[in-house]
Amino acid sequence: MSLNKEVQLDEVIEIISEKLKAGGTVTFTPNGTSMLPMLRDGEDVVVLKGTEGKRLHLFDVPLYRRDNGQYVLHRVIDFCRDGTYVMCGDNQFAKEKGIRDDQIIAVMTGFYRKGKTYYKESFLYRLYINFWYYTRPFRHGYSFSRRKASGLIKKINSNKK
Fold this sequence. Notes:
- The protein is α+β, with helices and mostly antiparallel strands.
- It has three helices and nine strands.
- It has helices at 9-21, 123-134, 136-160; strands at residues 25-28, 45-49, 62-65, 71-73, 75-79, 85-88, 96-99, 104-113, 116-119.
- Strands 1, 2, 3, 4, 8 and 9 form a six-stranded antiparallel β-sheet that branches. It has a three-stranded antiparallel β-sheet with strand order 5-6-7, with no helix packed on it.
- The longest helix is centred in the last third of the chain and has 25 residues, at 136-160.
């Protein structure tokens, strides 16, 4: 018998922390669209492990807690001179600077989609990361142009009425 219950991370963070400190892994289904297309809202299951006090690497995807208490799963895209991280969701363009090591709860080691496992060490995953990261400036320009064109079309159509 499988029992699935949706809970907030605040309700189980102590259990998660204990399991990670003991060397275990934790799986959960994230919500939100900030990590599209890699992670699909409410569909994919991520696998997390503790960082064991080690620093994160470029392109790692940690679960961290913002100072306002919000839990976030975003990618490391750069490092600040003060030793903090710069994070950004794959489906976002705004960079979040100043994430400290003490905010990091765990790091993603892979994810499941429709029964298939994707590990962060796999060739396809690494190909995705590099493609997604290095095309970021072009995607930003494309996204901006698409929004402007959509707004212009709506304006033209509303003037016709």
